[in-house]
């Protein structure tokens, strides 16, 4: 691996970002995890003329002479700087007043200041601030991924999904990342903003896709890892990828139609959502759901939740044995394969009458 140490100005990073040659979050990077206080402190340090930690940039020049840059380590710093000057992933004109340093202590001269409120001289000084950059030239992808893993050994420990994204680059991880990039997960409280920052939404979508492919599986790290490992051997699509994605999208559309606001239902619990999602996907393999049956299915699911709630509140309640089985599989070891299988059996039996055989 060839590398060199040097400096680049903030203006250089801004220009590369605007021309589209700077990739802030390559696939192996973790999602942004910095809180506002961390961002504000970084910008304050730059405004004070203080040095900040070194940034690693992978520089690649193609045979046509086009050079691109990917931030291997330091994406939090680069993203924060771009946000402060009014640039982010969203398209549109630069807005210098979107990000104020509101989380600094009140005695800081930069408290609540935005980039737009700086004087012309202060803006020039900010753009001219030199950042320490270690440039990695034309290294192969696996070398870069290995370096990223090694760098993060000494930083915030990567969780299981962050390690998968740092290790794999095949069609399965690409599909999972694409499907997880949806505001639905946070809006319906299936995952929190903090969980999204740590890629827990991506891990959950991984489990849904695995459930679509092979039915309910355990949620243990080793099980998910094995799927990533096995599917990494495929360069383009993995077997039946088109069918898996189609089933996922069809199931997702049905769940959205049934529960436009999942937050007020039991199904916002990931344990229950997983079982409902995989059960519907399972039935859609050989069946269709007539639109005329949608409201009746929702009523059935509401009744199902009512019985589950009644038994959870009072074990003496008179409910079907299947409901007792479902509750037992929710309360203990809910991500265990056998528990998921029980919930799958119960839910599938409850909703199957509303589906019709394909003609």
Q: What can you tell me about this protein's structure?
A:
- The structure is a single chain.
- The chain has 359 residues and is α/β, with parallel strands linked by helices.
- The chain folds into two domains: 156 residues, no CATH class; 174 residues, no CATH class.
- 51% of the residues lie in helices and 10% in strands.
- It is built from 16 helices and seven strands.
- It has a five-stranded mixed β-sheet.
- Strand 3 and strand 4 form a beta hairpin.
- Helix 14 crosses helix 15.
- The relative contact order is 0.09.
- The model has no long low-confidence stretch (mean pLDDT 87).
Structural class: alpha/beta
Global morphology: elongated
The percent range for strand residues is: 5-15%
Mean pLDDT: 87
- Count of strand segments: 7
Order of helices and strands: EHEHEEHHEHHHHHHHHHEHHHE
Short description:
The chain is α/β, with parallel strands linked by helices and 359 residues long. The protein has 16 helices and seven strands. 51% of the residues lie in helices and 10% in strands.
Task: Output the keywords.
359 residues; single chain; alpha/beta; two-stranded antiparallel ribbon; five-stranded mixed β-sheet
Annotate the secondary structure layout.
Elements lengths: L1 E8 H10 L2 E2 L12 H12 L7 E7 L5 E7 L1 H10 L35 H9 L1 E8 L3 H11 L8 H8 L3 H10 L3 H4 L5 H5 L2 H15 L6 H11 L9 H18 L11 H15 L2 E2 L5 H20 L7 H11 L5 H15 L4 E2 L2
Parallel strand pairs: 2-4, 3-5
Antiparallel strand pairs: 1-5, 3-4, 6-7
């Amino acid at each position: 691996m060839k590398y060199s140490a040097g400096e680049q100005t903030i203006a250089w990073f801004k220009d590369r970002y605007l021309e589209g040659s700077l990739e802030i979050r390559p696939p192996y990077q973790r999602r942004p995890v910095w809180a506002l206080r961390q961002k504000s402190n970084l910008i304050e340090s730059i405004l004070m003329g203080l040095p900040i930690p070194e940034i690693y940039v992978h520089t690649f020049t193609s045979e046509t002479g086009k050079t691109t840059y990917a931030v291997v380590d330091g994406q939090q710093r680069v993203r924060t700087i771009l946000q402060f000057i009014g640039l982010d992933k969203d398209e549109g004109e630069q807005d210098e007043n979107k990000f104020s340093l509101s989380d600094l202590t009140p005695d800081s001269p930069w408290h609540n200041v935005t980039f737009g409120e700086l004087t012309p001289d202060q803006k020039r000084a900010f753009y001219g601030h030199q950042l320490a950059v270690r440039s990695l030239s034309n290294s192969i992808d696996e070398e870069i991924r290995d370096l990223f893993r090694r760098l993060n050994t000494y930083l915030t420990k990567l969780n299981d999904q962050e390690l998968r994204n740092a290790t794999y680059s095949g069609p399965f991880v690409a599909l999972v990342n694409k499907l997880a990039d949806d505001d639905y997960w946070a809006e319906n409280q299936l995952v929190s903003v903090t969980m999204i920052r740590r890629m827990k939404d991506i891990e959950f979508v991984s489990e849904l896709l695995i459930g679509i492919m092979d039915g309910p599986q355990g949620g243990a790290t080793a099980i998910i890892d094995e799927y990533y490992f096995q599917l990494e051997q495929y360069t383009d699509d993995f077997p039946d990828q088109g069918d898996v994605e189609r089933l996922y999208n069809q199931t997702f559309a049905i769940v959205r139609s049934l529960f436009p606001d999942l937050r007020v239902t039991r199904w916002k619990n990931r344990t229950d959502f997983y079982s409902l999602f995989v059960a519907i996907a399972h039935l859609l393999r050989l069946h269709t759901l007539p639109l005329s049956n949608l409201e009746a299915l929702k009523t059935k699911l509401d009744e199902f939740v009512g019985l589950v709630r009644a038994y959870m509140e009072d074990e003496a309640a008179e409910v079907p044995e299947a409901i007792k089985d479902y509750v037992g599989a929710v309360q203990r070891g809910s991500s265990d394969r056998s528990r998921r299988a029980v919930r799958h059996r119960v839910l599938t039996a409850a909703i199957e009458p509303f589906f019709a055989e394909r003609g």
